[in-house]
Amino acid sequence: MYKLFILLCILSGIANANEKIEIYATKVDTQDSVVSATGDVAVVYKGYYLSASKAIYNRSSGELELFDNVRANQGNEYKVLGNYAKLNIKNKEKSFQPFYMLENKSQVWISGDSCEAKGSDFDIESGVVSGCNPTDPLWKIEFSSSDYNTDSKWINLYNARLYIYDIPVFYTPWFGYSLDKTRKTGLLVPSFGLSGTEGIYYQQSLYIAESNSWDLEITPQVRTKRGAGIYSTLRFVDSNVSKGSLKAGYFKEKSDYFIANNLANDTHYGYNFHYENSDFINQWFGLNLDGQSGLYIDGNFMNDVDYINLSSNETINVSTATQVLSRLNMFYNTDENYYGAYIKHYTDLTKDSNEDTLQKLPTMHYHHYLESLLDDHLTYNIDIQSNNIHREINKKVLQTDFNIPVSLHTSIFDEYIDLDYTTNLYAQHSAFSGQAQVSTQRYDSENGYIARNSNVVSVSTQLTKAYSDFSHVMGFGSSYTFKGAESRDGFYHDYESMCTNSNTQNGPCEFYGISEIKEEVKLDFSQYIYDSLGIQRLYHRLSQTILYTGVGSSKGNLENELEYRVLKNLNFYNNMFYNHEEEKFAKVYNSLVYNDYGVDLGLSHLYQDTFTASTLATPTSSATYQYTNYLTSSLKYQYSKHYSYYFAYDYDLELKQKKRTEVGFLYSKRCWDFGMKYVENNRPVLNRQVLNSEDETNGITERYIYFTISLKPFMSTGSVDSSLFAYKLADE
Questions:
Q1: In the chain, at which end, N or C, are there fewer CB atoms within 10 A of the end residue's CB?
Q2: Model pTM?
């Protein structure tokens, strides 16, 4: 039997408790200042744990040599292996020959002929790095030399050659990457593309993260046949309750592409500013108010939609529209009162000028929360909004709304029947400025007000019955709405007949937002079924409105809403509106969602009939359509832990136009991903035809093939939706 000799606290010659070495072995021999250890040698030194078959330590020189099956661990971060290692304790130098290191968190290994290390810096000669299985790696990078810092976890490779299996596919004289997931300044994964109309696409982002409170991403791009541009995004956190971002971009078209595609602008530029603060009043003004305050800014500007279209090579991942909205919202909220101020600014990209576009600059809002009296039988609240509806030219208005609903509640027959009476006190005042003109005729609007009240009487009940396997809840309700007193003056008196009986929003009626109070009865039925676990299995609601006019009565749309959990992971939803006069459905919406066994399926269909004649766009009006008939579908299938597939299809059945098609797959393993998808996408574009005709439906259909290639952890896109390379097939 071997005897275990333990040599503890052998000093390296420096009288420092942190420099001690602990050597454990089955046999230890000492001759002068040289200690030899053999048989299951283990060395503990400053957080390192080293093991070998043999060790020699010279106390005078401070050198420790390890032979055969050398392993070195530092905490749980990385592991070093080799046949020979030498550590100079005094100079804090290490050398390994050959060298093999595994970084445990990233699972990246590095192998080299030799390694010299001092402190946290490793210099490696002639080696290989990969994140795959070392036995037969799918990808690897060979290099002539490399340096690695264990503190920053940054690795530099020189004369790097990328191999897929044994096939060389890429060379670069230098390649640097961080094995740490904390933010660091450097180059991000580039994006490539190829298009018959736009040429070769290349985008490369520089990421700057010199502070924990902000980072900056600068992304230049080039499209060889179309032009070049640059986008940048600044993200910042200025306090523990606030954060924001600023994105700006510019793209310059080549003259040939600009002329050939009849574009409205040869440059595309814009910015997006986002900021939110959840306690700005106390923070900015040094107060200590008990209430909650908030600030939200979403500022957007662009000269046309191509500012958005050109921000990425994947246009399916960006939302494009012909109208841009900027908002600023701020509020202060207490248990009793709410104070708010909002600004909305619209930019219509189909117009040469937005001087006639209506803006809300600003809206002031006050709300007093629900108060109860008479032992909670009487309740009321107060809501006041003042809108400054402004534009540079033509008529403007300052419009203020007052709304005070007062409700009386009680129940009878041992709370089986609920009775409610609500009267809604409402007033609106408008103060006009500016001069309006319709065609060649001008019209004037006097300041005015309307004050009135409407009344609602309702009766309802809800019954619940429990069974052995489920519970059933049914509710019945009816309400009667009728008009009360009313007073009008000025604008509301002069244009009452014209604007109440007309659907037009032009001329003097554009600021007339008063709808007629209709005498009506509304009948409601609802039911719920819950299983024994309390999970809702069925929800069903029927609603019918009966309108009373001077010549009789008519039925409003019959609404039917149904949500049915067919199976644990299969859900069906239906919402229908039936028009009795037309004897047709005004709207039908169906959706089916399934998620189980690796399948994520979504199907939906919308049909809507406005019962108005269809019109196409003219030089003075935008296109409107009587019917909406739209189909959307998506399918994701996780075949195994390695393979997943994706399919999406959107189609406008009324216009007989395909809106989007996507089909693709992703093969994923621990160290690499490969994916491909085919995409057809219809997106809007601003050209001279749109400006001349105001046809907001103008757009182009793009066809792409996207490739996802990830060499983990050096390049990680993570899904089939994030692509390294795009091939553009065609535009229509």
A1: N
A2: 0.76
Q: Is residue 317 part of a domain?
A: no
pLDDT per residue over 192-237, tens digit each?
888 878 888 899 999 999 898 999 999 999 999 999 999 999 999 9
Q: 618 with 731, same domain?
A: yes
Tell me whether residue 445 is in a domain.
no
378 bridge partner residues:
373, 408
Q: Which domain range does residue 658 map to? A: 612-732
- Token duo for residue 635: 């399918």
Q: What is the pLDDT of residues 63-105, one digit of tens each?
A: 888 998 888 887 666 678 788 888 887 777 888 888 888 877 7
- Residue of 567, 518, 512, 577 whose CA lies nearest to 547: 518
Q: Is 361 exposed, middle or buried (0-12, 13-18, 19+ CB in 10 A)?
A: middle
Same domain for 731 and 662? yes
Backbone angles phi, psi at 498, to 5 degrees: -65, -45
Domain's final residue, options 70, 89, 106: 70
In the structure encoding, which two tokens stand for residue 571, read together? 């859900």
65 and 114 share one domain: no
**Do residues 63 and 110 both lie within one domain?**
no
Q: What is the pLDDT of residue 685?
A: 63
- List Cα–Cα distances, 297 to 154, 304, 428, 611, in angstroms: 38, 21, 29, 40
How many folded domains does the chain comprise?
3
> Is 729 found in the same domain as 663?
yes
Residue 61, pLDDT above cutoff 90: no
What is the token pair recorded at 363?
């809206």
Q: Identify whether the C-beta of residue 111 lies closer than 8 Å to the C-beta of residue 96.
A: no
Residues 243 and 261: their CA atoms lie apart, in Å, by 40
Quote the tokens at residue 529. 């079924």
With residue 648 as reference, give the H or E element that holds it. strand 643-652
pLDDT tier, 699 (very low <50, low <70, confident <90, very high otherwise): low
Cis peptide before 713 (omega within 30 of 0): yes
Report the mean per-residue pLDDT for the chain: 85
Provide the pLDDT for residue 155: 86
Strand spans (E) along 490-622 = 519-531, 536-549, 552-567, 570-579, 584-596, 599-609
Of 685, 646, 643, 681, residue with least CA distance to 660: 681
What is the rounded average pLDDT of the residues 11-26?
Answer: 58
The 10s digit of each residue's pLDDT in 320-370 is: 567 889 999 999 999 999 999 999 999 888 777 888 889 999 999 999 999
CA 298 to chain centre: 15
What DSSP string runs through 696-716?
TT-EEEEEEEEEEEEETTTS-
In terms of domains, do 662 and 710 share one?
yes
Alpha-carbon span 712 to 179, nearest angstrom: 10
Q: Which residue has the higher pLDDT, 429 or 6?
A: 429
Instruction: Give the rounded distance of the alpha carbon of 22 from its chain centre.
Output: 54
Distance CA 400, CA 402 (A): 7
Asked if residue 725 belongs to a domain, the reply is yes
Listed range (552-561, 574-583, 618-627) with the worst mean pLDDT? 618-627
Contact of 61 with 40, CB cutoff 8 Å: no
Residue identified by tokens 């250890």 is: 37
The three-state (H, E, C) secondary structure of 439-501, written as one string = CCEEECCCCEEEEEEEEEEEEEEEEEEECCCEEEEEEEEEEEEEEEEEEEECHHHHCHHHHHC
